[in-house]
Each structure stands twice: as C-alpha cells, then as structure tokens.
Description:
Elements: E1 12-19, H1 22-33, E2 36-43, E3 46-53, E4 56-63, E5 75-81, H2 85-94, E6 98-106, E7 110-116, E8 122-128, E9 143-149, H3 153-164, E10 167-170, E11 179-183, E12 186-191, E13 204-210, H4 214-223, E14 227-235, E15 239-245, E16 251-257
Parallel strand pairs: 1-4, 5-8, 9-12, 13-16
Antiparallel strand pairs: 1-5, 2-3, 3-4, 6-7, 7-8, 9-13, 10-11, 11-12, 14-15, 15-16
Amino acid sequence: MANIxxxxxxxxxxxxxxxxxxxxxxxxxxxxxxxxxxxxxMGPGQFYSMFNLEGRNAGAAYTLDPKNMxxxxxxxxxxVATANADDSAAKATAAGGAVLGGPFDVMExxxxxxxxxxxxAVFCVWQPKSHQGLGIQHVxxxxxxxxxxxxxxxxxxxxxxxxxxxxxxxxxxxxxGYLHIKNGEHFIGGIPPAQYRNPNAPPHWLIYxxxxxxxxxxxxxxxxxxxxxxxxxxxENVGRWSVVADPQGAIFALFQPxxxx
Length: 261
C-alpha cells in the first residue's frame, strides 16, 4: 500500500504532532524523512504545517498552546477514521471512555472529536469532508503501524471493539500475549502486554514510521538531536525497530519491516 485516496472507518487516517518548537520540529522531520512542508495560517503568528511526501499528505504539526492545553507534552496524536464523529463520541462515552473535545467542525475539512479510552490513552476520530487524511502510507517516511501502551489491555480491548468493530487477535505462534488489531481485512496495530511497558509512562498510542534501515535512521535521528529511548532491536519474523524522542520530546518508533522471501 502506498497512495491512499480514502480511509475505511476504523483505520488510522491521520497523525498530528503537537510541539513546543514548530520551526525546529519541521527541520528535524524534513531532514529525517525527506518530507516537504506547506504552512497554512491558523491565526496571528500561528501555522498548521502539513508534511508531504511525493506530493501527498503524510501528517501535520502545530504549536502546543500552554494556555488551552496546560501540561500537555510534545506528542504525536493518532486519528481514527469514522463515518460519524458525533456517533463515535457518544459510543465512546457509553463504552466507558471520555470526550475531551468536540465533536466540532474543522472548517470544510472534516469533523472530529478528541477522545480518551477507559485506561487514559488519548486519540482523535475524524469524519472526513474535503480532507481525507493521510494520502500515503507503508512506504519509507510514512505511518506503518501503531501500538496502544496501556496498563490494562483487558479494559482497553472491549472499548475499541465496541467503538470501531476491531478484531483483537493473538498471533498464531505468539506466546507473549501481544494483541494484533485488525480492522476489516487489514492488521493496523496492536496492544502489547502490560508487563513490557514503562510503568511510569502514561497510557498512550505509539506511532511507527516505516524506514528502509532502522539502524541508520536511528543514528540519523540522534545526529539531528533526538534521544534514543530504545536502540534498534530485531523482532523475529517481523522486522527491526527503535524508539526515539524528537528534540522537543515527542516519542515515536522507527520500523524496518522484514524482507519476506
């Protein structure tokens, strides 16, 4: 999968960086992934930076407002496609989650809501109008996967099943307890076992960027000012990956899929 013109409900459709230094973040990510940037005015001195790869949308960035979002650290936010943002917000509340913002219209681009699952992880739902979301995926420099880091997978799994109709399956030969998230016919992410997560980290969604060489990309990120939180490590029969924090502190993973013969 590379170019995308429409996202099925329940799929990961957009990623958005909230940062404390937007110009520095743009320099970091364009250098790391080869993205180009289009800035769109949001208000006095504010811009919404759209990241592009091969002429297609690969994500976006904005500057965090400490007045409206006190205490929110730099982060990558995951968006999930929905046919109706209002229905999704109501369903999330009924399933034990919370609505932190919206639903509201984003001009003519779409309608969204900011939600929190019962374990505390925050994500958004997106009902597209003129803006469908990511226009390219699963090639170097784009979103390829997302994991839910939660201390309570047993509470999170039923919530997401109810909200998006996801199937959550253990691998056929996997004894770790990792739950694979399947939306329709496509595997899109997972929920790792709680014992493998950092107990001091709040529940969150970790996004993975596809790269050709995890070791080289990790080294490049570090040269550009990132902190390496987990060095490149091999997952047998899956690929090689690392976890880094960009110079402002937003955390993400770099993933090199295994070459299947």
